[in-house]
Amino acid sequence: MNEIYSAAPSRYNEDVMSYERCGKSGVLLPRLSLGFWHNFGSVDPFERSREITRYAFDHGIVHWDFANNYGPRYGSAEETLGRLMDLDFRPYRDELFISTKAGFDMWQGPYGNWGSRKYLMASLDQSLQRMHLDYVDLFYSHRYDPETPLEETLQALVDIVRSGKALYVGISNWPLHATRVAYDYLQKHDVHLLIYQGKLNMLSREPQDEGILDFCAEKGVGFISFSPLAQGLLTDRYLPKEQTQDYQIPADSRMAKGKFLKESMLTPELLNKLRGWNDEALGKGQSLAEYALRWVLQQRGVTSVLVGASSVSQLEKNCLCIK
Ligand SMILES: NC(=O)c1ccc[n+]([C@@H]2O[C@H](COP(=O)([O-])OP(=O)(O)OC[C@H]3O[C@@H](n4cnc5c(N)ncnc54)[C@H](OP(=O)(O)O)[C@@H]3O)[C@@H](O)[C@H]2O)c1
Fold it and tell me: How far is the CA of 313 from the centre of ligand 1 (A)?
């Protein structure tokens, strides 16, 4: 794929992608955003990553989400973006909304994990180098750290905004009580909490049950759902093609890799639920994936869904949810 990339002129057409305001802010996010947790690492074919990102950009999916340790190898998804920026997307930098995070394990020793100022500051500098960017649009604290004073983590986020290395900040996987503290602290320091990133899908509804979504809606904080397809469970990936089987595990699927999705999750109860939802989806002329994404997008306070894709055709099917 050596030809010079020229983005599709139709990429912002209304029938291609729609955009939603991210809480009380000036930022509009595409309702479908692209996550780089899997499929963009050093173990993955670069040309496939390139095809997926070109397809995404050509279809108005302009928000791309990273973390320092996405890969595998840790850091390599960000390196893939660095190559893609150099090859295809540099002319379009101002059309992209790029996020990254720090909070989980990244490097050895006491300064490569959790929520210290030391870790967050150093990690963002490393991310920018790998991504070949001067700044990210959004930087997240990737998880709540019960041992670091919240003020230390939050002041680091304030200072990151002041430094210009990130334009906005967000938090991910923080409990409600700490989310309240984060919102207030940042607000007092003239930084608005742009967005909360949490796992919301038809099988995992904690952000709703715990009141995170209501809090975000009340305070004007955006909400983006990660793993909206439950890593592929809420698609037809594992549903059997033949009636004699209970399920299938395609050789190229995330479950076949066995690290983050395990075969033991496919219990009779779960398979019953999936079959029921699949029938409802087909009854509406939708795929289960489309049905599951539409469900998330309909929940109060949800700005965008952050999908993963291992092929262009998956992303293409998922785009149907915004039509
Ligand atoms: N903040 C956090 O702690 C956190 C945690 C997890 C994820 N995230 C973010 O959320 C993003 C998305 O997470 P995720 O990858 O778990 O999301 P997901 O959308 O729930 O799952 C994506 C996987 O589902 C399968 N899939 C997607 N579309 C499909 C379709 N139409 N038909 C059949 N299968 C389909 C593919 O699996 P196969 O590989 O099997 O093809 C794909 O890799 C991540 O990349 C990351 O940016 C954040």
Answer: 14
| Cα within 13 Å of Cα(230), Cβ side | 21
The boundaries of the domain holding residue 80 are 21-238+246-322
Site residues for ligand 1, CB cut-off 6 Å = 35-39, 65, 142, 172-173, 197, 226-232, 235, 237, 253-254, 289, 306-310, 314, 317-318
What per-residue confidence (pLDDT) applies to 258?
87
Task: Decide: pTM greater than 0.85.
Answer: yes
Residue 15 domain-assigned (yes or no): no
Q: Is the pLDDT of residue 1 over 80?
A: no
Residue nearest to atom 45 of ligand 1 (CA): 35
Nearest 5 degrees, angle CA 280-CA 201-CA 311?
A: 85
> Is 14 within a domain?
no
Q: Does 58 have pLDDT greater than 80?
A: yes
- Ligand 1 atom showing the smallest separation from residue 143 Cα: 3
Among 237, 266, 297, 303, which residue has the most ligand 1 atoms within 8 Å of its CB, making it the best to mutate?
A: 237
Contact by Cβ (8 Å): 234, 280: no
pLDDT digits (tens, 9 = 90+) for 26-41: 999 999 999 999 999 9
- How many domains does the structure of the chain reveal? 1
CATH of residue 208's domain is 3.20.20.100
Contact 294, 285 (CB under 8 A): no
pLDDT number for residue 212:
98
Using one digit for the tens of pLDDT, what is the confidence trace for 128-166? 999 999 999 999 999 999 999 999 999 999 999 999 999
